[in-house]
Structure formats: structure tokens, C-alpha cells
Amino acid sequence: MTDDATSGIGRAYPDRVEVRGRDLAGDLMGRLTFTEYFHLLLTGEEPSEEQRFFLDLLLVAIAEHGMMPTNVAARMTLAADPGSLQGAVAAGILGAGPIVLGTSGECARLLTSGREPAEAVAEIRAAGGKVPGFGHPVHKEADPRAERILALADEHRVSGEHVALARRYAEAVPLPMNVAMPMAAVLLDLGYPASTVQAVPILARTAGLLAHLAEERERPLGFRMAAAAEDAVDYDADARP
What we know:
Elements: E1 10-13, E2 16-19, E3 22-23, H1 24-28, H2 34-43, H3 49-62, H4 69-80, H5 85-94, H6 103-111, H7 117-126, H8 144-155, H9 161-172, H10 180-189, H11 199-218, H12 222-232
Antiparallel strand pairs: 1-2, 2-3
Helix pairs in contact: 3-11, 4-5, 4-11, 4-12, 5-11, 6-10, 8-10, 9-10
């Protein structure tokens, strides 16, 4: 962290927009894909071919997963305020915490902690916690996204120490590896800092949210979801926290 009040991302001038030292209109527009541009914004450098390939792969892998809590929250928000698309997107992203979507950031921290997998798993369990990156309410036997990421990482020969460590964690946890762990491992092996890993699922899920909200305007489900929630919960006047 630096003390000087500077930013190295971008600046608008009367005759141009400069981003990471490059001319937006004169250089980047028409040359970079959005995935490549995101990498440039995030890291300050243009990606290698493998970084571009896997960043693209991971964005596709995590963008959409059905009626998850993030999508439900966004749809119900838009139903309540049809003119607030940005508010509905924000509602969905605010729900992207460590249980639903933010686990990849926790996986990255675990993989860079320097702890031995068996020891780390035992400590997490002793504290009553869950090992991030393992288990899934739908993919109980295997997460097809996780398997595909690892297979492609091996095929492209980018599997390094973090992918190997993730596989050692899999040996110590009696649950299937979900998409968050290989996502974190591959990004770390490709040179991304652990602090940037969580940005990838957040960006990806924003695209999914926008798709759900476009559909919500055409085929509204938000109030039906609210009614289903009301029907699913019994009222008990004597219930206390």
C-alpha cells in the first residue's frame, strides 16, 4: 500500500481516454476482447494467451447456475421496483458472500496460507467451520465445472503448485470439490494475486444477473417467488429468536 494519492487505472482528457497507459479509443477498442480488457484493468497488464483462455473459461463457468439466492434476490428487487435495474443487480451482488459465491476468495487464501492440508482441515473442523471449496447442495457426487477446469488446466499444462495443493485438500475432505477451489487454484497458478480471485465470480455473476433481470421483465417471477416463500414458512405467534 502506498501513501501517495494516485491511481494508475484511467483518466479522461478532452481529446482522449487513457486506461492503464493506453489510448482507449485509439488502441484498446477493437483490439482487446472484454476478457482481455478486464485482465488489463485488474492487473495493469495485458494477458498471456493462457491467462486469457482460462479467465474466459472461468467467467463462463460461474456466470449462471439457475435460481440461486443471488438471482432470486435480484428478481424480487426488480419486481418491487421495476425501474431500478441497477438496484436489482446490486441486491444480487450483495448476496454474493462466502456461502453462495465468494468462496473462491476463501479458497485462494487457504491455498496461499502455507498450511498443510490435513492440518488445516482438522483446524477448520475443530473450530466448527467448513472447508471452502468442497461440497455442493446439487452436485453431490461431482461438480462438472470443477472437473472440466482441472482437466483443461492439465491439458494446457498450467496446473502448478496450487492445483496440486487443491488436489491434496480433496484427499483430506470427504466431499466433492466444487467449482470455487479449482477456480482459485488455476488463477493462482496463472499468476493472479489471491486478492483478485474473488473479482472473477462477481464479474461473471453480474452477467448472469442481467440475464435473469431481462427475463424478469418479460416473464415476471419475483412476486411468485415472494408468495412461495410466504407459503413455505408457517407463522407461529409464540416463536421467539
